[in-house]
Amino acid sequence: MRYRETDMIKRGSGVIVMLAAVVTVFSGTVQADEIVCITCHGALPGKYGEPVKLWKESIHAGNGINCNACHGGDPKDAANAMKKERGFLGVPKYNDVPQFCGRCHVGVLKDYLASGHGRALGKGGPNCVICHGSHQIVKASLELINEKSCSRCHSYERAKLIRGAMQETETMIVAIDGRITAYKQTGSDVEKLEKELFATRNRFHSLFHNVDVKRVTDESAGIKADLKKIEAAVTALDDQQGRRKLAGAIAVAVALMAALVTHLLRKTFD
Fold it and tell me: What was the pLDDT predicted at 32?
């Protein structure tokens, strides 16, 4: 009996040692996964720490896009984080910013280069960070087209017309997206509608860098027509859902009526 108890104790001790080893390795992994850029710069005052504060409020941070995704380098090794051998790129020159951002935003880069802003690059025209910022990047929306921002470089009049032409379209996209999301949360099959809206939204976003009022107005009208088709499909889902609810309510009412009749018949015969 004592031998068996001793053996069990030894086995238990072995398991504990193994678990401790696993925990130690796991702890080491967590520490190695820390982004040293954020750890170091986040503790620095003034201009050296400001980028981290701004980045934390950005859409990049919200999507897990860290410093090294843009600036390169080794995010796990503080001593070698900024070495070229580890892929460090640093801060791009003004005219190189579009290509720098375009490594990820390929379609947006194409739209920008074809726009009046892009064609003016190198001649006093704005690069990406002039409108979008360098660290506190926000989600692309019509809020970026505003008098305070645009009038830093030119009159707001044309931008105002462009925003006006696009405003109704964006409102439609947001509303339809909300309705599709609500159906998805109930388990409804809305994959086709999601894909259609995604493609239409991308067409809409391609206009964000265009400064041709007529083109923006014409293409916005076409996009709205496509959105109305998607909206009609969602409305059909609403009708279908309403019929299901009505059928369910009728079924419940019939069941209750049948139960009541059965109860009354039993009382009569009793």
Answer: 30
What is the band of 246 on the pLDDT scale with cuts at 50, 70, 90? low
Is residue 115 situated within a structural domain? no
Please tell me the total count of domains within the chain: 1
246-268 b/e (C-beta count within 10 Å ≥ 16 → b): eeeeeeeeeeeeeeeeeeeeeee
- Please, what is the angle between helix 213-269 and helix 191-205, to 10°? 160
State the Cα–Cα distance between residues 6 and 184, nearest whole angstrom.
Answer: 57
pLDDT above 70: percentage of residues in the chain: 80
Judging by beta carbons within 10 Å of its beta carbon (0-12, 13-18, 19+), is residue 149 exposed, middle or buried? middle
CA distances from 154 to 150, 159, 216, 239 (A): 6, 9, 19, 49
Could you tell me if residue 217 is inside a domain? yes
User: Does residue 87 form part of some domain?
Assistant: no
Residue 47 backbone class (left: φ over 0; alpha: ψ -120 to 50; beta: rest)? alpha
- Tell me which DSSP letter residue 93 carries: P
pLDDT in tens, 63-102: 999 999 999 999 999 899 999 999 999 999 999 999 999 9
Length of the chain: 270
Residue ranges in the chain assigned as alpha helix (H): 2-32, 36-41, 50-56, 59-62, 67-71, 97-102, 106-114, 116-119, 128-132, 147-150, 157-185, 191-205, 213-269
pLDDT at 163: 92
Domain that holds residue 171: 149-270
The three-state secondary structure class of 126 is: coil
User: Is pLDDT at 228 greater than 90 in this prediction?
Assistant: yes
CA distance 94 to 121: 9
